[in-house]
Amino acid sequence: MIRQIVTLLSLAPLLTFAAPKQLINHPYAAAEPSPSPLDEPQNTGSQGSRMVAENSILRVNSTNQAYDFFQPWLKKSPVSRRGVGVLVQGGCVLVTAELVMNSNFVELEKATTAEKSSATVERVDYDCNLALLRPSDPGFLEGMKPLTLEKSLRVGNEAAVLQLEPNGEIAQTIGQITSISVGAYPLENLGLLQYKFRVPLQQRDSSFTLPAVSDGRLVGLLMRFDARSQSADLISTPVIRHFLDSPAQARFPRMGLSFSALRDPQFRRFIGLTEPGGIYVNEVSPHGSAAEAGIKRGDVLLALDGHAIDQDGNYDDPNFGRVLFSHLTNTVAKLGSEVTFTIFRNGKLIEIPAVMRAPDRSHVVSDVQLADQPPDYIVLGGLVFLELSRPYLQEWGNDWVNAAPKRLVYYDAFQNELPEGRGKIVILAQVLPTPETLGYEDLQNLVVTEVNGKRVQSLSELAEALKKPLKGFQKIEFEEDPKTIFLDAASIEANQKALIERYSLPALQRL
Amino acid sequence: MLRVSLFIICVFLAAGLDAAEIAESLVRIEATSQEPNYKAPWSPGEVSSGVGAGFIVQGDRILTNAHVVSNARFLTVSKEGDPKPYSAKVMYVAHDCDLAMLAVDNAEFFNGTTALELGDIPAIESGVSVYGYPIGGKRLSVTRGIVSRIDFQTYSHSGMDSHLTIQIDAAINPGNSGGPVMQKGKVVGVAFQGYSGDVAQNVGYMIPTPVVRRFLKDVEDGKYDRYVDLALTYHNLSNPAARKALGLPADDAGVMVDTVYGGGPSDGIIHPGDVLLRIEGLRIASDGTIDLDGGSVPLTEVVERKFRGDSAMLDILRVGASRQVKIPLGDAWPFALQSKAYDEKPQFVVFGGLVFQPVDKNFMDAYKPGNLRLDYLFDFFVEDGIYRDRPQLVVLSNILPDSVNAYAKDFLFSVVDEINGQKIHRISDVASAFEKASDYYVIKMLGVGRPLVLERKAVEEARSRILQRYGVTSEHYLKK
Questions:
Q1: Which pLDDT score, from 0 to 100, does residue A9 have?
Q2: Phi and psi angles of residue A276, each rounded to the nearest 5 degrees, phi first
Q3: Which of B219, B316, B427, B442 has its CA 20 to 30 A from that of B78?
Q4: Rounded CA separation B221/A493 (Å)
Q5: Confidence at residue B445, expressed as pLDDT on a 0 to 100 scale
Q6: Which residues have C-beta within 8 Å of that of residue A348, sequence separation ≥ 6?
Q7: A458-482 tens-digit pLDDT
Q8: For residues B112 and B56, what is the distance between their CA atoms, to the nearest angstrom?
Q9: Chain A partners within 8 Å of B372 (Cβ)
Q10: B19 touches chain A (CB under 8 A)
Q11: Distance of alpha carbon A465 from alpha carbon A452, whole angstroms
């Protein structure tokens, strides 16, 4: 499901590669080897889109600075991202969440006049990779016109991707939708509806988020582009609609189940399934919508709200064709609304209603992403403690699955199988050598089990446990060797200032 | 790897035997071997041949490296100056220390040869000569160098065991394997491994005589029993606070036990958290070393020199009270899964075109499955005590495509947990589960919600078709 696709970052900073001026207004120029005459009749749809777009799109500049999880008291060096945002109803500009992830400063810029206004991130949702920006200057967007959303799309439909030239001209590139399916969004593991789009994009500045329009309506936002295959993934309009219509802070609902296709006739006979189609429930995660509704492992999901589910999990959508049933539960349904499954269980057909819930973050062992928030940490006499998270593992680079410490990778990968109530995984990430840590310099990435005899399942529990040393010693126990270490509590206390100065730490903890 | 030929070369040596005499004890070993193919475990494997060195020791025996004769089907040996090859056989092979002893059927072979004597550990910086048949020519080659370092090293033949090793700066190249390293007319080591030139320059390793002597002593009773182990881990106690907390004096002695492997020799005798103070009366420093024969070596060196059935005395401190414990030494079998195996046929079961195999190092090297769950179970097999529940990890390793298994692909490299309700602890359980007649064979995999189901009818119908199509000569091999 997850394809290796280059993010738009690779398109970003190439000002000098901007297309020659004469190509700009010709929608087909980029695709054809020899430019066709300019007086050739143009696609009226894209002409229309250009007229509207000029009045609805803005350049967005964001300076982002992520935290360094290896040195959680520090930020990494800032990076600039530029993209094209779309004015939507409500006086806000819609961009991808990735564009403003960990942003320090966001700026809106009118394409032709280069007028600027700083902006704040009004809402951001990393599940669907969308964010809304509001200009600080309330009159900044006056005279501009919000775009409306295209409702129905089919494979084969065309749309124009809009880019901005340095001089403010709009460059349009026509592309075609090649498939519509539920697929992984880059920032979370949630599968949502996306359009695969084949488009011969030029390298241009301001390309981190790009809108695609058709007939003056927004078709989607580009979130990934692979220059080699010239294929892009678009955030689909139902996902944008769901995001815009949801109250702030609301997350996308999820079923909380995993399933297998039911293609194998031997297996269908084994479970006594004579109905056509259906998928087999493999796992139901605790506290999710499926679990609360009483859906169990081994159930066969045959239909959802009257839509038959085929053996691969797809249903026939009136607007988009065959797509995965989870589009209905994760995007079409709103938080708190009810859907009804037709289920084959123990030879009988039953109906089970399910109330759609958002995943409960309090049960997450290792967070998938921690954008916009400084990571918590505790430094004890030089020992640096963190909670395990995906961003920490990702510090090992693109090959982190193989490069990061194995036990931590496994904890992250199989966190759903940990006993309920496991809490967070506190790790001794590294040691800043001090006189107190003598002999412990090489310890790193160890999972903490107990501190001073108390089980530790979060950094705040660790902070509590450290307040009560045993007979003057901080006793720390790990899952791996060395199983137990001791530090001198009084000496740590006395040398705190020296530690702060030695390693220029802003603080010994952040919780 | 080992490609050589021989002839006498006269090299002046400082003392003892001269090169011509040493050459009389040198043996060229030609091995025809068959390495099993783990991806087609029913196949006997490809035949290949190689050449290595060896030398004659007391009692008309030849010493060489285990890796020279591993998986050998046919062996010949020949002497300097005598073109006639003699057929030889492996008497003992020690894969955990890369040594082997060969015998020659025809006693005439040893006429006019001299048995070499074993010397002691040579001093650092003293000169040594390496005899063998390395690449670069056909004749006997001698290279000289000095002893650079004496330390523990992993023996790459098994990949898991480490023993005392001597590093020398004389050139050691493919073809030197099994050849003697001489000093003052005595063997001070057996050349066995090194780094390729793009990793490090002038770094070669030899097996020192304590390891060779141990091997010779071990086989005196007619069989090789492998090394013994304490099967525990420990960490240093150099932190002053840790010493105070444990009530230890500031004398820089003792290490703290972390893990005691279940079923190992120390299980139940040593507890995690115990402090080890002395082993066989020798003081253990806070970094885990002891003083032995005038050098500082890891405390395990004491155990290295012992044999199956021996025991080790340890002075320990448990919750502040000192006591003495006796550990009957044995080996820690779960580690065997993570070492490379030789002279073994791979175990497997084929059923309905599905190939089931137990996981070990050879398996992982052959398939490189890249399956995160399997990687975890393999990597942490010992550390997380996975062996307690599953002495073997049995996986669906391969699918010989047929209509009966058309939908089994999703289960590739999954670990088999149950077949028709029967728990699978080892590969033989798979064979016995499939022997019981049932309309459906329900195969449950670890961490996979949906079972893999095969219909008996379909399996039976496909059976001979699959065996024939894929040239599967046998449906299982279960002996270990």
A1: 30
A2: -75, 160
A3: B219
A4: 62
A5: 97
A6: none
A7: 999 999 999 999 999 999 999 999 9
A8: 11
A9: 401, 409-410, 413
A10: no
A11: 6
DSSP B410: G
For residues B163 and B179, give the distance between their C-alpha atoms in angstroms, rounded to a whole number: 19
- All residues at 6 or more sequence positions from A4 whose CB lies less than 8 Å from its CB, including other chains: none
Give which of A88, A96, A51 is closest to A215, Cα–Cα: A51
pLDDT digits (tens, 9 = 90+) for B333-364: 777 888 999 999 999 999 999 999 999 999 99
Task: Judge whether B432 counts as a catalytic residue.
Answer: no
Please write down the HEC assignment for all residues of B138-190: CCCEEEEEEEEEEEEEECCCCCCCEEEEEEECCCCCCCCCCCEEEECCEEEEE
Domain ranges of chain B: 19-221, 232-328, 336-477
Compute the residue count for chain B.
480
Q: Which chain B residues contact residue A436 at CB under 8 A? A: 241
> Which segments of A262-339 does DSSP mark as H helices, in order?
265-270, 289-293, 326-327
In chain A the domains, ranked by start, together with CATH numbers, are 8-245 (2.40.10.120), 257-355 (2.30.42.10), 364-510 (3.20.190.20)
> Is the Cβ–Cβ distance between A213 and A147 less than 8 Å?
yes
CATH number of the domain at B336-477, please?
A: 3.20.190.20
CA distance A306 to chain B (A): 25
pLDDT tens track for A248-293: 888 899 999 999 999 999 999 999 999 999 999 999 988 899 999 9
Q: Report the residue from A267, A486, A488 with minimal CB separation from B453.
A: A267
Dihedral in degrees, nearest 10, Cα atoms A174, A180, A184, A187: 40
Least confident of A244-248, B313-317, B399-403, B405-409: A244-248
Q: What are phi and psi of B202, to 5 degrees?
A: 55, 40
Peptide bond connecting A41 to the previous residue in cis, omega within 30 degrees of 0: no
Report the 10 Å Cβ neighbour count for B313.
13
Extract the runs of DSSP E, i.e. beta strands, from A265-399: 279-284, 300-304, 307-308, 314-317, 321-324, 338-345, 348-355, 377-380, 383-387
Amino acid present at B56: I
For residue B56, what are the contacts with CB-CB under 8 A and spacing of at least 6? B25, B27, B62, B63, B110, B113, B114, B115, B116
Among A171, A60, A53, A47, smallest CA distance to A110 is for A60
Q: Look up the ipTM and state it.
A: 0.86
> What type of residue is B116?
L
Residues 406-435 of B with CB under 8 A from A: 406-407, 410
